[in-house]
Amino acid sequence: AIRLFEINNRMAERSSGAAAVAVDSASSKKRCDGYEYLDHTADVQLHAWGSTLEQAFEQCAVAMFGYITELDTVDNLKTESIEAEGDDMLSLLYHFLDEFLFLFNADPFFVAKEIRITEFDRENFKIKAEGFGETFDLKKHPQGTEVKAITYSNMQVHDTADKPEVFVIIDI
To answer: Which tens digit of pLDDT belongs to each residue from 69-78?
Structure first.
């Protein structure tokens, strides 16, 4: 908790004294077992963790979809697969999330309730993953906040033995 407080304070200081509050306040969103939303000026920061780095990546993608709609309204009716690669761990995380965001923003307009990484190549920075969910439907799924883009701003990947975690700011 202290570490998150320090990160939020540093983000607020960098924003030229402006309050670090998202348009759709991240604090109004619920905290889940593997992720939470942190306020950030005009955007939101996803903080995700797991017992492995793979789980932290998976939870980060789920957090992104959770910001778009209420995940308890999503059923696991279909599976979509993605592949992503990068030049380092940060770009791998960026491309991993961007591939899932593309699935939501273009046909098949897919929203995932669960993500499973099937291959995670740390040496060559490649991921294969599956998302389990369904096609987004405004009649069924409440419209949350539009995620415009993934950003590199203050992106962090911490692969520690006690708590692998990632931080990603999404443009809303």
So the answer is: 999 999 999 9
**Pairwise CA distance, residues 53 & 99, whole Å:** 18
* Residues 169 and 153 sit within 8 Å (Cβ to Cβ): yes
| CB proximity list for 139: less than 8 A, separation 6 or greater | none
**111, β-bridge pairs:** 134
Q: Per the structure block, which two tokens stand in for 74? A: 């999503």
Assess contact for 56 and 166: CB atoms under 8 A: yes
Please give the model's pTM, rounded to 2 decimal places: 0.81
**CA–CA distance from 89 to each of 12, 124, 128, 166 (Å)?**
26, 10, 14, 10
Q: Lowest mean pLDDT: which of 110-114, 126-130, 142-146? A: 142-146
DSSP letter string, the chain: -HHHHHHHHHHHHHTTT-----SS-GGGSPP-SSEEEEEETTEEEEEEE-SSHHHHHHHHHHHHHHHHS-GGG----EEEEEEEE-SSHHHHHHHHHHHHHHHHHSTT-EEEEEEEEEEEETTTTEEEEEEEEEE--TTTS-------EE--TT-EEE--SS--EEEEEEE-
